[in-house]
Specification:
The protein has about 525 residues and is an alpha+beta fold. It folds into two domains: about 35-180 and about 385-450, Periplasmic binding protein-like II (D-Maltodextrin-Binding Protein, domain 2, 3-Layer(aba) Sandwich), CATH 3.40.190.10; about 185-375 and about 465-525, D-Maltodextrin-Binding Protein, domain 2. Helix content is about 40%, strand content about 10%. α7 (about 150-155) runs parallel beside α14 (about 395-410) and α10 (about 250-265) crosses α11 (about 285-295). The longest helix has 19 residues, at about 495-515. The chain is globular. The model is unreliable at about 1-15 (pLDDT under 50). InterPro entries: Bact_solute-bd_prot1. This is Sugar ABC transporter substrate-binding protein. Keywords: Signal, Transport.
Length: about 525
């Protein structure tokens, strides 16, 4: 991969540079080593130190002495900000700058950020943020435009296509240092679907299809209901794990991943709102079917599933051995064999999200069966985390350069590979991370990692991917939905009744923000 950069170049030193980069990548991937336990702060600091080359090439030692920066981000699963601390400690030691940290739980993130935006009291210089918030932050002039030297240092051309501009930009200006690529993928237990006793029971139950990993949501539902009351290796067996508890707006993605195959038609880029009116689609037959699926599956899921947020389903339940299917960001794959709490490292498989036998056509109001077979529509949920520098540093040249240097260090190409291989909260977001040999050299089984990376990159590159709109207030829409979904899942509202209430709340919010402005930005986010 690195050698490809030397094609067409006759200067002799280039291969040596490529070899040096390859050696660095191989070295950091052995820290601490796949299968050798969860990485520690000492490991994060070692990796951060080894990846300081680009900083040392552009910044003098001690150049930022006396500069203090404030960084706001997540502490979800004891990752995110905690890793940033480790990665940036060597950067602080070399540059002389000091970073103060604002750590937020995932459920608290949106309220805290919205408060800062609404009151105009931005009290941080660097911000970990997802692209959906760009309408709220960049659209209000709160972010600093990226300098050209940063673009070069982080090698933006290496980003996967769906994360390139307009993502990370606003009004044609670049603001974001991408550190993550996000898509929901399908995670399943391979041992369940190889179990001969389950295969026999499946057939005896009258099923005419083979006992196999589900490819559609209809099959997911059937498997989930079938597994109720059964056991695997002496443990209670469960099918799909729904995340029902509100999670600061982030939980809405998990209903979205049940809905995209029903709601995202290949002939229509939109799936959340009508593009010409911003009329919500959340209460159309596709979304109502997805909500009803949750209600129908819950009696077959673990007893307290109503109180399970996504952290519970992914980390406590699925990685801990409960359940056979769940949807999550790519964290499941990168944690399965490198997280001390995982018991499923050798029995975990991956795919793009399940499809659907039919897909709702919002233009005709009918369900279509595609000649090509089931409809697949990966949920490109959240468009990945990025690091943003706030405009409040622009008036101080030294602080401005320091903030962008810290952001560029976190967005480095080599550091990105490590964060994808080990538990970090971040997944692949660069084409250079799809080098199977590097992962195998790090200690991953070739079949496992090929399966995992295919689930990620086949989602990123899918022609019918469900693109998330970067419009102001998007998490306000999601949070409103979560509040009402909680009532639906608890049995207080019927699926259609609750969906209608969500649609009404969304309409009110759109009018408050400005319908014509939202229509314009929604179309732009979909490339229309």
């Amino acid at each position: 991969m690195a050698a490809m950069g030397s094609l067409g170049v006759t200067a002799a030193p280039q291969p040596a540079v490529a070899d040096e980069a390859s050696d660095l990548r191989a070295k950091i991937l052995q820290i601490p080593g796949v299968g050798k336990g969860s990485p520690t702060d000492a490991d994060w600091q070692k990796v951060g130190e080894l990846c300081l080359g680009a900083t040392k090439a552009s910044i003098k030692e001690g150049e930022f002495k006396g500069v203090e920066l404030s960084f706001m981000g997540l502490n979800n699963q004891n990752l995110h900000n905690l890793l940033f601390r480790g990665f940036l400690k060597p950067w602080e030691a070399y540059t002389g700058a000091k970073i103060n940290w604002i750590d937020l739980a995932q459920a608290d993130y949106n309220p805290r950020l919205q408060q800062a935006i609404a009151t105009g009291t931005v009290d941080f210089d660097l911000l970990e943020m997802g692209a959906p918030f760009e309408g709220d932050v960049c659209g209000k002039g709160l972010a600093s435009e990226m300098p050209d030297w940063v673009k070069k240092q982080i090698d933006m051309d290496d980003l996967v296509s769906y994360l390139k501009p307009p993502v990370g930009t606003w009004d044609g200006k670049q603001y974001r240092v991408t550190i993550d690529g996000d898509t929901h993928n399908f995670n399943y237990r391979t041992d369940y679907f190889k179990d001969e006793a389950l295969a026999k029971a499946w057939k005896e139950a009258g099923n005419t299809t083979e006992w196999a990993v589900p490819r559609t949501w209809q099959q997911v539902q059937a498997v989930t209901k079938f597994l109720k009351g059964k056991q695997v290796d002496g443990q209670d067996a469960y099918g799909y794990l729904d995340a029902c508890k509100a999670w600061g707006g982030f939980g809405f993605y998990f209903l979205g991943s049940r809905a995209t195959a029903y709601a995202k038609h290949p002939d229509d880029k939109a799936w959340l709102f009508d593009v010409d009116t911003m009329k919500p689609r959340i209460n159309n037959p596709a979304w109502v079917r997805a909500i009803q699926d949750v209600l129908d599956a819950l009696p077959s899921e673990p007893a307290d599933q109503l109180n399970a947020d996504p952290n519970t389903t992914g980390f406590q339940q699925f990685l801990g051995g409960t359940g056979s299917m769940c949807v999550w960001w790519g964290d499941i794959g990168s944690n399965a064999k490198t997280n001390d709490s995982s018991v499923i490292g050798d029995k975990c498989g991956f795919d793009i999200l399940p499809g659907s036998d039919d897909v709702y056509n919002s233009k005709t109001g009918k369900w279509d069966k595609l000649a090509s077979g089931p409809n697949f529509a990966p949920n490109l949920a959240y468009l990945g985390w990025g690091v943003y520098v706030m405009a409040r540093v622009d008036k101080d040249e030294k602080k401005h350069k320091a903030a962008w240097s810290a952001a560029a260090h976190l967005g480095g190409k080599d550091l990105a590979l490590w964060t994808a291989v080990y538990p970090s909260g971040f997944q692949c977001y660069r084409n250079s991370q799809h080098n199977i040999d590097e992962w195998v050299a790090a200690g991953y089984d070739k079949e496992f990692i090929t399966n995992y990376l295919d689930s990620q990159f086949n989602s990123y590159n899918h022609p019918n991917g469900a693109i998330e709109p970067r419009i102001p207030g998007i998490f306000q829409y999601y949070s409103l939905a979560e509040d009402i979904l909680a009532k639906i899942y608890a049995g207080q509202l019927k699926a259609q009744e609750g969906a209608d209430q969500i649609a009404a709340a969304w309409e009110k919010l759109t009018d408050q923000i400005g319908r014509e402005k939202q229509i314009k930005l929604y179309k732009a986010s979909l490339g229309l």
